[in-house]
Backbone:
């Protein structure tokens, strides 16, 4: 059996009066909160509220950095020059850190969102720009991402910690990459399937890929998407299933 597992989810994904994630409910079950920093979602008041809630629940907060794409929720492919991207990553980390410090906590890690997550996993130049942004922000924060990704390689080259994550509610290709959104099987919505995958990943480091074959995938953190309908209830059930399987759920940072 693997060691303790972290449970992370995307929070603060709203803007103004529009709210996509049930942050208060999710904070009762996750151990790490990937907080939107204003580029794909989120605004100052939302960031402040999530940080205060995370502090109250003992949940770690991470900066979920993104391409500047509010209209596309950060899921549209973009070409951003490396120096510009590094500056924008640092800007987002700094914005969240203001509200984390005000709540008596600190930003504990960085995780790219959406199109940036996928691009940085495969593109060494964009990965290096994300890492440069973390270094520019002034704190050697861990990078949360896919095992064997270009992002993790760039972070390790720069002397930054890395944390491998896996998705309990996303489909995987046989090579360990995620099935792109829009393709069949990209997002898993059947609770029983998500629960089975979460336990399999946490306990044995195994799942079934999109081609039906077993895939070995070690991870220290499991992600559940906060914008999935019923995400908070699913997070509760995942924690219960993990506990029943003898898996300790604990923040990695």
Residues:
């Amino acid at each position: 059996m693997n060691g303790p597992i972290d449970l992370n989810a995307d929070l603060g994904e709203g803007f103004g009066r529009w709210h996509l994630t049930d942050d208060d409910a999710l904070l009762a079950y996750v151990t790490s909160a990937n907080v939107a920093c204003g580029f794909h979602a989120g605004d100052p008041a939302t960031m402040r509220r999530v940080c205060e809630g995370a502090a109250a629940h003992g949940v770690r907060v991470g900066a979920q950095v993104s391409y500047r794409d509010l209209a596309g929720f950060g899921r549209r492919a973009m070409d951003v020059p490396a120096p510009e991207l590094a500056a924008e990553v640092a800007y987002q980390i700094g914005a969240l850190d203001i509200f984390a410090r005000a709540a008596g906590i600190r930003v504990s890690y960085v995780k790219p969102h959406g199109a940036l997550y996928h691009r940085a996993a495969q593109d060494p130049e964009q990965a290096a720009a994300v890492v440069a942004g973390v270094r520019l922000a002034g704190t050697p924060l861990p990078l949360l991402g896919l095992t064997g990704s270009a992002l993790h390689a760039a972070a390790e080259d720069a002397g930054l910690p890395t944390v491998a994550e896996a998705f309990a509610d996303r489909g995987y290709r046989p090579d360990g990459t995620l099935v792109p959104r829009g393709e069949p099987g990209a997002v898993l919505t059947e609770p029983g399937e998500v629960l089975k995958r979460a336990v399999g990943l946490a306990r044995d480091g195994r799942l079934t890929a999109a081609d039906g074959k077993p895939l070995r995938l070690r991870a220290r953190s499991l992600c559940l998407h906060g914008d999935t309908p019923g995400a908070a209830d699913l997070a509760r059930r995942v924690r219960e299933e993990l506990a029943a399987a003898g898996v300790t759920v604990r923040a990695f940072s």
